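#struct-help
A.M.: can someone run this one for me? Single chain, 339 residues.
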Amino acid sequence: MDSKVVVVTGASAGVGRAIAHEFARYGSILVLMARNRVSLEGTVREVEELGGKAYYHTVDLAFPEQVERAASETEKNIGPIDIWINNAMNSVFSPFNQMQPDEFKRVTEVTYLGQVYGTMAALKYMLPRNRGKIVLVGSALAYRGIPLQSAYCGAKHGVQGMFDSLRSELIHDKSKVAITMVQLPALNTTQFGWVKSRLPNKPRPMGKIFQPEVAARAIRYAAQHNRREILVAFPTFKAVIGNKFFPGLLDRILAKNGIDGQQTSEPVGKERKHNLWEPVPGNHSAHGTFDHLAHSRSPLLWMSTHWRVVVLLTLLFILVIILIIAFKIQSPPVPNHIP
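D.P.: on it. Structure tokens below:
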């Protein structure tokens, strides 16, 4: 990863900020995109403290001309883009029947079309060179929608469909440009403090929570390896497999637990700001307010990224079992009495 030019969208906070930290440790040249200039400058400082180098563009990913301009300036002033990570997102916590059309459109434009525009901008430069890597940041919700996040779930489903189509096309064209989708679990990020919400209580990640660094490690691995897809944690695996075989059952489970499971017991303050239309001012963090609940390791991710070790240990275990059985079969019976 040393000296590779890596573009990260949504890099001002949350997962995007953690991704910048992760790649900085490996010597990459970061190009950060988001709307919040102050928070982008904060990310740049943190990258430099880690010994890396970073530049930024203030970009609203909902506008393709802004994305293309930032990509063009990166190619001209910094160097050829090696890796493009589509991470920017937005959401609204709200029952579907209270959503407004402009809110649904905005979430779709940022969370889905933002990845489309980013991918288009990256391919414009990668395809003629016949090299490069694009990482799409997905979610368990790309496979299984949940209550109160219809716009976000729909957008992530859209990203999944676009990814399937594009990957098939690249394989057909025998292109050396690679694309991977990384499906995230619930994460302790800043989005729960500033996503627009109509819930009576403060939003929270649903289910088992992981730190954003877990996602960042998975995304860095995806950028280095030609994997089709990475499921970052066991809750993601459960959602994908469960929805494949028992979607109706999940409908009922989520109807029962999915509303309260996305809220804390703390009422929402009247002063709460949201970032649907404009960024929340200030310099923000990679972490949200759930550090006390969040896990910093994912056993499933370790097994996925060390699959050769897992296969070897499994084969050794099977071999030991076979040897034990063979030994017992070949051993002469022990007499039960002395003549």
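A.M.: thanks! The first helix runs from residue 14 to 24.
D.P.: also worth noting: The CA atoms of residues 11 and 17 lie 5 Å apart.
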